[in-house]
User: Which sequence fits this backbone?
């Protein structure tokens, strides 16, 4: 079955579309990428999303947004799919708010997208898990399990806006998988790049590499209670907000110090929080496969490897061959599971009371 | 198939649950009511809904609301369904905003409700039609057609927060049906009752019956462009808002005049707008079957009958035997259609470019 996964992350940087061929043989599922496309948001829509996240949108804006998203998703799909015979669309939607275990909010009207594309659409993947007391996240672990389980114990690390890990023991069954968010991925590095240099992100970690640590800033960040919380846990821009990052930057920036230093320090925070979670939760892992935009920040990767050595972990760090398309592929797979009546959450990972068939199916 | 229809209207007065047995013989569908329950909203939830409608809710409130609605719908369902073997739940959700043909917003998380009840849930009925350029409303006409078509030309009038009519020619096919919103139903009568007497509505039309018309108020109201617009059209609280009603009441109330007069005048507006639409769109109709809370306002009914006589229409007015449960039954039927792959909108009624299978199916 050919499934298109459409993903837009908390960075609101692009509409990712992954066309996948998904096949099954008994319990073994295989997901192969046919093509991947990353298309820009229109400035209008990106502005409307950021305004909504900031709580500055009117009810009319908030009513219109899911339809505007469906329109742009449909447009991205059409631009990307010229020659592909797609049977199912799987739409993550744009997270506007994440407040587990009370609620979660992925905007993007699946029924509208289905009407526009004349294809079945699966969407709203996180709500059932939250309604069952779960975090509604992370949901990628079941995909990591299907595609990355190996004879050696592995970790799948994704560094998007937030960072998360899936812990895959050797030859793991679904029930053996652990996973959680580890804290900020690129989100605070991006804020620091914007505040200091007016850039949307730190290309290849160049700013961070040129600066020096600000120890008291790092120290205050490390005391954020999320980092020491037990599992299950997930987080988002509600906690690791632009506002909080700006507060910290203002508090610890010295006029005579190089601007790079805050980028360096918030990069170190991301690396530290990832490695700290691994040290505590999966010290026996042998391979770590890194995906997401953050996998392209070579300074961040170096710092992760440095901290791995400092912690005396025997862990080989690799870049995922589909580092940019993995999340969109994961949601293609989750939609495929839903259509086949298979649950998509891992209760011990999310904290939900039971496995659930995730999402809603529209077939307008 | 036993289907539960869950409906909450723009008046936010109750959670209506209709358990229906739906059967089909070829193209003929039959919907019989097994039981009907109207349960109160909790004060907290009602407050949160009204705050949201007024644009005063935070993003966290708006994220939480669909889950809180799912919780109360689940609770209402459980209180109501003790002995019924329900196979499908059909949830209209709470309209927060209606902005056709750009967007529409029915809050209430179907995926969460499905997880809580462990039953399939169809929901979000209006979006596909809006995405196809339609008004997303009215959707009850296909149910009126299935249940009220007769050998005489009929009108089905529903007086809820807003009022709408379905025009059913004798022995009509689905394609023969016309329908539209006619303007306010109870919404402005309720505002007038609240502003003047602190009552949530005008019981049996007692205030209205005791007052006299304020001609300039009626005259200004009649100039609202919605009334003279052609079809298709639908409306909501965005246009017939509490704020606008209060403005009109303040403008035309005289301190020495009885408070009842504004209730009388806004009741007359409702009656006038209904009969004016019938006179223009369906003067040949012979029977009118009235449902919704407004059907219990005997003064409003008298005024409708009076204006029908003034317009020399040969129209017999009857109360629908399921006047209170009709809308919930209609959505039970629409959910049943969706599960069976049948479209639910009538394109010439809503203005959509094509028939669509409405809503999304969750099966958590």
Assistant:
């Amino acid at each position: 079955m050919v499934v298109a996964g459409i993903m837009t992350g908390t960075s609101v940087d692009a509409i990712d579309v992954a066309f996948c061929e998904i096949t099954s043989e008994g319990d073994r599922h295989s997901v192969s990428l046919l093509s991947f496309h990353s298309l820009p948001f229109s400035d209008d829509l990106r502005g409307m999303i950021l305004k909504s996240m900031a709580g500055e949108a009117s009810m009319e804006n908030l009513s219109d947004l899911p339809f505007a998203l469906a329109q742009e998703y449909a447009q991205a799909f059409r631009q990307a799919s010229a020659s592909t015979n797609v049977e199912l669309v799987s739409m993550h939607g744009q997270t506007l708010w994440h407040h587990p275990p009370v609620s979660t909010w992925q905007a993007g009207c699946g029924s509208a997208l289905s009407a526009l594309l004349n294809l079945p659409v699966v969407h709203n993947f996180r709500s059932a898990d939250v309604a069952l007391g779960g975090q509604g996240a992370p949901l990628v672990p079941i995909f990591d399990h299907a595609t990355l389980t190996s004879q050696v114990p592995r970790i799948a690390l994704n560094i998007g806006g937030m960072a998360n890990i899936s812990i895959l023991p050797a030859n793991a069954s679904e029930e053996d998988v652990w996973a959680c968010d580890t804290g900020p991925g690129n989100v605070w590095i991006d804020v620091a790049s914007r505040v200091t240099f007016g850039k949307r992100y730190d290309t290849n970690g160049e700013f961070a590499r040129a600066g020096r640590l600000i120890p008291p800033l790092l120290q205050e960040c490390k005391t954020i209670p999320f980092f020491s919380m037990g599992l299950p846990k997930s987080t988002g821009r509600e906690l690791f907000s632009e506002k909080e990052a700006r507060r910290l930057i203002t508090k610890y920036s010295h006029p005579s110090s190089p601007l790079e230093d805050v980028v360096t320090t918030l990069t170190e925070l991301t690396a530290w929080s990832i490695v700290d979670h691994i040290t505590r939760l999966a010290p026996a892992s042998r391979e770590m496969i890194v995906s997401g935009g953050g996998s392209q920040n070579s300074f961040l990767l170096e710092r992760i490897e440095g901290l791995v050595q400092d912690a005396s972990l025997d862990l080989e760090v690799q870049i995922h061959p589909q580092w940019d398309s993995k999340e969109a592929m994961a949601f293609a797979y989750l939609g495929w599971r839903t259509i086949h009546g298979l649950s998509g959450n891992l209760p011990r990972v999310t904290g939900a009371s039971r496995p659930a068939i995730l999402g809603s199916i529209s077939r307008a």
Summary: The mean pLDDT of chain A is 95.
